[in-house]
Specification:
The complex is a heterotrimer of chains A (99), B (595) and C (346).
Chain A: H1 3-25, H2 51-65, H3 72-78, H4 82-93
Helix pairs in contact in A: 1-4
Chain B: E1 2-11, E2 14-15, H1 17-26, E3 32-33, E4 44-45, E5 55-56, E6 59-60, H2 61-77, E7 87-92, H3 102-113, E8 119-122, H4 128-141, E9 147-154, H5 158-166, E10 189-196, E11 203-212, H6 225-238, E12 247-249, H7 258-270, E13 279-280, H8 283-286, H9 293-306, E14 309-310, E15 334-335, E16 340-347, E17 351-359, E18 371-380, H10 396-412, H11 419-423, E19 424-430, H12 435-448, H13 455-459, H14 465-474, E20 480-484, H15 489-503, E21 509-515, E22 519-526, E23 532-540, E24 552-554, H16 557-565, E25 571-578, E26 582-590
Parallel strand pairs in B: 7-8, 7-9, 12-13, 12-16, 19-20, 19-21, 24-25
Antiparallel strand pairs in B: 1-2, 1-10, 1-11, 3-4, 5-6, 8-20, 9-10, 11-17, 14-15, 16-17, 18-22, 18-23, 21-22, 23-26, 25-26
Helix pairs in contact in B: 1-9, 2-3, 4-9, 6-7, 10-14
Chain C: H1 3-12, E1 14-18, E2 22-28, H2 32-39, E3 51-57, E4 63-72, E5 75-81, H3 85-94, E6 102-105, E7 110-116, H4 120-127, E8 139-142, E9 147-150, E10 158-164, H5 165-178, E11 184-186, H6 189-198, H7 232-240, E12 245-251, E13 260-263, E14 266-277, E15 282-289, E16 301-303, E17 306-311
Parallel strand pairs in C: 1-11
Antiparallel strand pairs in C: 1-7, 2-5, 2-6, 3-4, 4-5, 7-10, 8-9, 9-10, 12-15, 12-17, 13-14, 13-16, 14-15, 16-17
Helix pairs in contact in C: 1-6
Classes of the chains: A mainly alpha (99), B alpha+beta (595), C alpha+beta (346).
């Protein structure tokens, strides 16, 4: 594996694990971290988070990763699975997302 | 029915109920940028002018403004000379005051006013003071008092503000129910009505209704079914037909979820007429005064009716779809005769309360029916829950309450199916929110500040959190209330439940429950005869109770019923005297007794 | 009508399709809960009127069926995909030793109709009552004509109607005519499968292979730890050492099923499922990859001479997320500023 690839994967894992922690500690999801699949749906199906959890998640994105987006639509699109959330955090870090 | 003999208010519009009329007549509101504490994205609130919270003078603001409002109401009523122990206080509050249990606030207010009759607290979030006013009718019918001062108060604190913000229900502008943008504006205030027996030519609260949605912990049932049940209950008790309603004062918070649900309910209850009956939202000038919203908006309605006018909905610009056609849009009150008004309130946990306010109406004569104790249950430790419910999703209070009620209903073979769900209810005696949830909330605030507060945990702060969740899990959607009366809470809940069951046509069974941090007990009361008859019940001021004769005495309903079932006694007095609150006495009589 | 038009209807208005891929069994009797508890890999916390989305596994923890266990007062309805009615009844019976239950295979007498799309709720409301907007996801209700399950696998509003076989034709006609004002389209199973693939929903008919368990298939949310059920021991082993993990992939052309996927000249996995996403205008699919490289956002994979990259699931930004039945009817859709159906890729 190329170092670039390894570096990218490591960054994704770091964010993934942070988010798993949020689900377990803040959203009281009663799962072990390794049971929380990156593509599992967060809302509706999957972990069945509700609208209250959505608001919490937005706050956590801010406090943990500094992601502070006024654009609700962009947020909602990315709150589908942990993977889509990781995509958002990475894009924010790389400055791809306009404030 | 209860005549409205006086009213008093302290609100964001100023001190005195007259300020509410001025705002409606002149077209202004009490909403302004919040200066009392740091705010984030949302900056507006409806706070009492010239008051410093949390203290004003030497008293917590909640108590000080309650005393001021109640004194004004009493002065208007001109009833000096009424024996002090024949005056009751029913106080509705959502979150009370920091550092005090809700019943302690009620006691403090009653003491300052010299009230020596029963002092009861109702806490069903934003439906509290509406329920409190309704309860006055029951206290009068029960002859527990001759005059009832009923209403409530709540304060705008950083916690409540952050909680509502976290729930995503605040508006960035002054709230605009039925219009744009969606969202509500938090406020505070205190209001009281002085209620007494029928007096001709006086506006009266002719009847009231209660229900619970059983849908979600913070969002209303979008079909409005719960609200409709509460409205219908109020109309039925009043003997007023839906066709005779002239005006509806809505809960009207302006949030996305509330307004359409409320409109659906109005259509369901009024039918075709819903297209013509004016509906307005007084939160547009009062803000959302939380537990005090019901009484303040009732006062707005009463004052308007006295001036032959209807309260307006201010700031109506772009109409939202699925809202009433006539929302009395405008800055000022509209001149219109109104003889029958319906007041609606709703709160977290799905609690609904409705009042019918009318002039020249007489409620139907009530034939009391006998009340019996059916099944009972007591749980603590690690009680089993029905297999369909995940215990880990629930905080301890909710687990205990749900386990106890599920057990009792199961023992009775009472299935929550079809109509039974709407005609079974619960009255819960409770002093404080769940201890574990409370601690967890404090932790999130400590770690993340108010901005990082947990919306889920904030929602557990209202006393109605556990009862509301329990009602949802078990499908119990009928009459619903939460009462605090110190150490007499359990019996006060039972007495209230008994009075409702004896006098209302919209209920078949009521669970009278009591919940503490580590345990829950409940008794299912029904109109169907069993071997334990709840023959009589009474409430009096603390230390003022006169108990009926009995063979034996017990401290709680379960012990009392057991004495009868085991044949050790035939008339058992179950009594409790709670300092600062009330003396409650219930008489249990054995053998299929009807008297 | 082309598959692309049918998928567009799933994404933009509403479709009606026959649910021949679904079967249903009723489990009644005093031990009904006990039986479902034995076979369900997931904790059976489901109240009357609610549906639990889980799987039926074989002893090697391989998914045999994608199921909804539905609590219906004292009975249960099991709605399954991936088995015939007879297979479902036999599976349940096999695990019912010593239990007082009656298992009825409803596939003999009943069939399903499926309604999917951002305005599916409106079509269902038109043929029942407006109050169905209060029916939450994964719950069901009865009407005198059918049982209506609110589920769906396309990521849009979805309702599956269970009704007597002799009424399917008439009800389908009613839906298609009532739905004219909603731009309803009749859709084939292939179109719904493509929509499900875009939405990242597991397809038991296409994505199962020997040796794959819910661990590899990213279906652990359908399973509860610490339970005993068919395949539980094997699943626990796989949790400790997974044989790989699925990921969603994208490429310019559809890929051959079971073809090898390579990274840097080494084989790292294979194609489980592939199809053309009309919404994204590229091919998407599900690949089983070595755990070390099973991450979204990676480029450089190849399948034969086709470049493949991994993407996050779901692959589309469902319109239904932005449709609130309280406020957004089909007629008013032009007044809503919907975001694009595909998330930005950075």
């Amino acid at each position: 594996m190329s170092p670039d690839l390894a570096g990218y994967i490591a960054e994704r894992e770091q964010i993934l694990n942070g988010l798993r922690g949020v689900l377990i500690d803040r959203m009281r999801l009663r799962r072990e971290p390794d049971e929380i699949d990156p593509d599992a749906p967060l809302f509706g199906a999957g972990f069945a988070l509700d609208s209250l959890d959505a608001v919490e998640l937005v706050v956590c994105l801010d406090t943990m990763f500094g992601v502070n987006l006024p654009d609700n639509a962009l947020l909602r699109q990315h709150m589908r699975s942990l993977n889509t959330l990781v995509d958002l955090v990475l894009a924010y870090r790389r400055g791809h997302v306009a404030l | 029915m209860a005549a409205i003999l006086g009213y008093g208010a302290v609100s964001s519009l100023g001190t005195g109920a007259q300020r509410i009329w001025s705002a409606m007549a002149e077209g202004w509101d009490g909403i302004a940028p919040v200066r009392r504490f740091e705010v984030g994205t949302f900056t507006l609130g409806a706070v009492i002018p010239d008051r410093n919270a949390p203290e004003h003078g030497s008293l917590p603001l909640c108590i000080e403004m309650s005393i001021t409002a109640a004194r004004e109401a009493w002065q208007r009523a001109q009833l000096d000379g009424t024996p002090r122990d024949r005056i009751a206080l029913v106080f509705g509050t959502s979150l009370g005051s920091e550092g005090a249990l809700v019943h302690e606030i009620t006691a403090a207010v009653a003491d300052a006013l010299g009230i020596a009759g029963p002092r009861l607290t109702v806490s069903t979030a934003c439906a509290s003071s509406t329920n409190a006013i309704g309860m006055a009718l029951d206290l009068l019918a029960l002859d527990a008092a001759d005059i009832v001062i009923a209403g409530g108060a709540d304060v705008l604190t950083p916690l409540v503000f952050a909680g509502f913000a976290a729930l995503g229900v605040l508006s960035t502008e002054k709230c605009a129910p039925f219009s744009e943008p969606p969202g509500t504006t938090l406020g505070e205030g205190a209001g009281f009505l002085v209620l007494g027996r029928d007096r001709p030519d006086t506006l009266a609260v002719v009847g009231y209704g209660l229900s619970t949605d059983g849908f979600h912990d913070t969002s209303p049932d979008p079909t409005g079914a719960g609200i409709a049940r509460s409205m219908r209950g109020a109309l039925a008790q009043s003997g007023v037909a839906a066709a005779d309603v002239d005006y509806i004062n809505a809960h009207g918070t302006g949030t996305r979820a509330n307004d359409p649900a409320e409109w659906r309910a109005i259509q369901s209850v009024l039918g075709e007429r819903a297209q013509q009956v004016p509906v307005s939202a007084s939160k547009t000038f009062l803000g959302h005064a939380q537990g005090a919203a019901g009484v303040l908006e009732t006062i707005a309605t009463v004052i308007a009716m006295e001036h032959a006018a209807l309260p307006p909905t201010q700031r109506v610009t772009t109409r939202r779809p699925n809202t009433p056609p006539d929302v009395v849009a405008g800055a000022t009150a509209r001149r219109a005769d109104c003889n029958v008004a319906l007041k609606q309130s709703a709160g977290f946990g799905g609690a609904n309360a409705s009042l019918v306010i009318a002039r020249g109406c007489s409620a139907p004569v009530v034939t009391r029916r006998p009340v019996f104790v059916a099944a009972q249950a007591s749980v603590s430790g690690d009680p089993p829950l029905p297999p369909s419910i995940d215990p880990h999703e629930l905080d301890p209070s909710t687990r205990y309450l749900t386990a106890a009620i599920a057990q009792a209903l199961d023992a009775l073979g009472l299935r929550m199916r079809g109509e039974a769900r709407d005609r079974t209810g619960m009255i819960v005696g409770l002093l404080a929110p769940d201890r574990e949830s409370d601690r967890a909330l404090a932790e999130t605030i400590e770690r993340h500040g108010y901005r990082g507060l947990s919306a889920n945990l904030f929602a557990r702060q209202v006393l109605n959190a556990a009862p509301g969740t329990c009602a949802r899990l078990l499908g119990i959607r009928g009459l619903h209330s939460v009462i605090a009366a110190g150490s007499a809470s359990a019996l006060a809940a039972a007495a209230y439940a008994a009075e409702l069951l004896a006098t209302r046509s919209d209920v078949d069974a009521l669970v009278a429950a009591n919940l503490t941090d580590d345990a829950a007990q409940c008794s299912v009361l029904t109109a169907t005869p069993t071997d334990v008859c709840l023959a009589s019940w009474q409430l009096a001021g603390p230390g003022r109770g006169v108990a009926p004769e009995a063979d034996a005495v017990a401290g709680d309903l379960l012990a009392g019923a057991e004495l009868i079932r085991s044949g050790r006694a035939r008339r058992v007095l179950v009594t409790q005297s709670a300092a600062g609150c009330a003396d409650v006495a219930l008489l249990l009589v054995g053998g299929n007794h009807e008297s | 009508m082309s598959l692309s038009e049918q998928v567009a209807a799933v994404r933009g208005s509403v479709t009606v399709s026959t649910g021949e891929h679904l079967v249903c069994a009723r489990v009644a009797g005093g031990d009904a809960h006990e039986l479902l508890d034995r076979v369900s890999p997931r904790q059976l916390f489901v109240r009357s009127g609610q549906m639990l989305h889980t799987l039926l596994l074989d002893d090697a923890a391989k998914p045999l069926a994608d199921v909804y266990i539905c609590c219906d007062e004292d009975d249960y309805l099991v709605v399954a995909e991936g088995m015939t009615g007879g297979e479902l009844a036999a599976y349940l019976a096999r695990h019912a030793q010593g239990l007082a239950v009656e298992i009825a295979d409803l596939a003999q007498s009943h069939a399903f109709l499926c309604v999917d799309g951002p305005y599916a709720w409106e079509l269902i409301a038109d043929i029942t009552t407006p109050d169905i907007i209060g029916v939450p996801y994964l719950s069901f209700f009865r009407d005198d004509r059918f049982v209506c399950f609110r589920a769906g696998k396309t990521g849009e509003y979805g309702y599956d109607l269970l009704l007597p076989r002799d009424r399917v034709g008439a009800t389908r006609d009613q839906l298609l005519s009532t739905g004219i004002r909603l731009d309803v389209r009749a859709a084939e199973r292939d179109a719904l499968d493509l929509a499900a693939l875009e939405a990242g929903f597991f397809n038991v008919r296409k994505q199962v292979r020997p040796g794959l368990t819910p661990v590899e298939l990213q279906l652990q949310w359908r399973v509860s730890a610490g339970r005993s059920y068919p395949g539980s021991a094997v699943l626990e082993q796989h949790r400790k050492s997974p044989r790989g993990r699925v990921a969603m992939i994208a490429s310019v052309r559809e890929l051959p099923i079971d073809a090898a996927i390579e990274l840097g000249g080494e084989r790292v996995g294979s194609v489980l499922d592939s199809g053309w996403s009309h919404t994204r205008d590229e091919a998407i699919g599900i690949a089983l990859l070595d755990v070390a490289v099973s991450h979204a956002g990676l480029r450089g994979f190849t399948c034969g001479d086709i470049a493949v990259r991994t993407i996050s699931s779901p692959a589309i930004n469902n319109r239904s997320l932005y449709v609130d039945p309280q406020r957004h009817s089909f007629a008013a859709r032009d007044k809503v500023d919907f975001p694009p159906l595909v998330r930005p890729s950075w």
